[in-house]
Write a structure and sequence with these properties.
single chain, globular, two-stranded antiparallel ribbon, 2% strand, mainly alpha
């Protein structure tokens, strides 16, 4: 994993993990507050604001001497463009889902993403997993169905948006692995691409597509009539969510560079527990005994999935479980690419778990 630093007596792995947990949970809660508590009806515009401010913050970081701007080329822009299409779809659908679903239910339904990704691994890469992993995934599915059936504030369109979000997230995860690896190869002579460089590409290409959505959905005409824009609390929430959009990108890459897939997966699953509880408390979501039970099943499924993957692994191939080779993303390895996905062979479940590890086909 490379040299390990210590901060206030704590390991780099622990500090980066805490930063990841804090930013990811805060981002979900703030987006929920901005869209639901203030009745803001222009989520695409909020997303555009977040991406724009993130780019400005990256520029400020470069001016202060943190890293160096990435090399921009037409080849890299074309390579990254599909990732941005999926990224915009992922975040946009998440906004619409959060408008009608409680945070606790969202944490349960997001578990379905792992289910989709493991099927992606099976279909695209021929990976096979143990019975324990499949049982855990079906437990996730059962929990999600129970959540929809017991949610006292059930909203059909919002649940549909969440299902779309799961599809976008799984596709984004499957494709991103290949893009990271290919960018490492293309930019190798320039020293690779670091965390800030990935943030630049992600947001630079996202903004034009988001602006197109703003006009296509009619938000441009009604945005300035939104009462929430004049509310100081909403303004603070919007700025805070944009700051977190920047921080979560850096924190997740940092955590991935100094930990293993198993640890990241466990932390991601366990982080849903306080998030679900906070969501119920802060937004006073209507609950029942069955509702709470379904949430607990989903949370338990997330933890069990991480444990099952750690103990059983992938059948039919050897794997390398390392936590990354340093702070940058310049040490990726290429592999055989599916004809239309352009992603290297490897387990996408590891990517969802947050690892850059590659599965070598022997």
């Amino acid at each position: 994993m490379g040299a390990s630093h210590r901060y206030l007596g704590m390991s780099e792995e622990l500090v980066s993990g805490l930063c990841f947990c804090a930013t990811s949970a805060s981002m979900t809660l703030l987006n929920k507050a901005a869209l639901s508590a203030f009745h803001f009806t222009a989520p695409t515009s909020l997303l555009c604001f977040q991406c724009t401010l993130t780019l400005l913050l990256v520029g400020a970081a470069y001016l202060l001497g943190f890293g160096r701007p990435p090399a921009l080329s037409l080849r890299l822009l074309r390579l990254w463009l599909p990732v941005n299409v999926l990224f915009v779809g992922m975040v946009w659908s998440s906004f619409y889902a959060l408008r009608g679903i409680g945070v606790a239910m969202v944490t349960v339904l997001k578990n379905l993403t792992n289910f989709l990704v493991i099927f992606g691994d099976l279909y695209f890469f021929g990976k096979r997993y143990s019975t324990g992993v499949w049982v855990t995934l079906f437990l996730m599915l059962a929990s999600a169905l129970a959540a929809a059936a017991t949610d006292l504030a059930f909203d059909g369109p919002s649940y549909a948006w969440q299902m779309a979000n799961n599809v976008f997230t799984a596709a984004y995860s499957l494709w991103l692995r290949g893009v990271i690896s290919q960018m490492s190869i293309i930019t190798h002579k320039q020293g690779g691409t670091d965390e800030l460089g990935m943030v630049v590409y992600n947001n630079l290409l996202s903004i034009p597509m988001i602006l197109a959505l703003v006009f296509a959905t009619g938000e441009a005409g009604r945005l300035w009539k939104e009462p929430a824009l004049l509310h100081p609390s909403f303004q603070a929430a919007a700025v805070a969510s944009a700051l977190l959009s920047f921080l979560i990108s850096i924190a997740s890459m940092w955590f991935l560079s100094c930990t293993t897939a198993t640890m990241f997966s466990l932390v991601g699953s366990l982080n849903k527990i306080p998030l679900a509880v906070l969501g119920m408390m802060l937004f006073k979501a209507p609950t029942s005994t069955n509702n709470v039970i379904s949430v607990l099943i989903g949370l338990a499924a997330g933890v069990v999935f991480a444990h099952a993957k750690a103990t059983s692994g992938v059948q039919g191939g050897s794997s390398s479980s390392s936590g990354g080779g340093g702070r940058g993303l310049s040490k990726g390895r290429s592999g055989d690419l599916p004809r239309f996905l352009s992603i290297p062979s490897g387990s996408a479940v590891d990517l969802v778990a947050g690892s850059e590890q590659q599965q070598q086909q022997r």
